[in-house]
Amino acid sequence: MRLRPAVGRAGAVALVCSLALVAFAGRASAHVKYVTPGSDPVAVVEFLAEALSDPFNVAVLLGGAAFVVALIGGYLAVRPARRDVAVFRETIESYRDLLPWLLRLSVGIPLVGAGFSGYFFSPVVHPADPTFVRLFGITVGFLLLFGFGTRIVATVGLGFYLVGFAFEPALMLAFEYVPGFIAIALLGGGRPSADHVVSRMAADDRTLYSKVDPFYRAIAVPFVERVQPFASLVPLALRVGVGISFVYLGVAQKLMNPGEALSVVAKYNLTAVVPVSAELWVVGAGLTEALVGVLLIVGAFTRAASLTAFLLFTTTLFGLPDDPVLAHVSLFGLVSALLVTGAGPFSVDEWLQYWAARRDRSVDARAAN
């Protein structure tokens, strides 16, 4: 009987620490290569064995996992605040007309920053020809920001990223550009954009521009006709691409590269923020990012996962003073876009909504009888 209060207190401490780790994991979730280059390597197996040999660390991790499972199970069983959730979804989905603009900002701004800084997509990739890199980043970035030739520019940008990735695997740190470019190529510039202005002028036969237009009818319209049928796949492209980025950052950059991750914890004294071991910080941050990534990939609780990612990036942007903020703007913007789109097709959320609607119809039918 005397053991029960002690066990209860230990469980409560473990749960509180696990929640704190999730809340502050963003401070350790920065791209570690950006802030701790050249850290000493640490053997992965030895690191994980040491981290998981501590009963407290195991209790915190299991407590966090149990909390997440209980939260998801409780929500599915009770489905609280249904009207609030419905109003939230309706409101945020009403911003879909602004989605192309949001995507252009999310990709265009960091590309302009990369161009002026002289790196190719990721701050860790500095090709031998800085002039080309600067011209590429600034040109593609500004064209996306202006929304001029948006679909074609995004396709060109995607092509350059894929070619660069074939020669420089470190570009995996900037993999979020892939879903960003794909989404922009499918949706176009939207409004406000130069493309929208040009299309209106070219479509009006009374304008002088419509008579000399070299671009709209010959290039833009055929391109739109080819990609328009795939526009519904934008949420799928975004969540899978962003999810892969999160899994990579959590697993490859933290759990499989603990030396640099431990250097981040030491550099910013993160154990003073949440008083747990540095090993638990790294494992907790890595598992949190990996979990968010998996949820996004399968499309489960997509908006909740996106909101969690949004909070992680917010703490990163304001918590790490020398982290290159522009390197995070693309991911920051894409998870914001996922708040608007939701999971889209081929997702767990789509399946859950189907069964929830079916259950509600069944309940209404029984009540009517």
UniProtKB/TrEMBL annotation:
Keyword Membrane: yes
Topological relation to the membrane, as annotated: Multi-pass membrane protein
GO cellular component: plasma membrane
Localization annotation: Cell membrane
Pfam families linked to this entry: DoxX
InterPro entries reported in the protein's UniProt record: DoxX, DoxX-like_oxidoreductase
Main location: membrane
Highest taxon in the source lineage: Archaea
Transmembrane segments annotated in the record for this chain: 56-78, 98-121, 133-163, 230-252, 264-284, 290-313, 325-346
UniProtKB keywords: Cell membrane, Membrane, Transmembrane, Transmembrane helix
Stored PANTHER family: INNER MEMBRANE PROTEIN YPHA-RELATED, OXIDOREDUCTASE CATD-RELATED
Protein name, per record: DoxX family protein
Organism of derivation: Halopelagius longus
Lineage summary: Archaea, Methanobacteriati, Methanobacteriota, Stenosarchaea group, Halobacteria
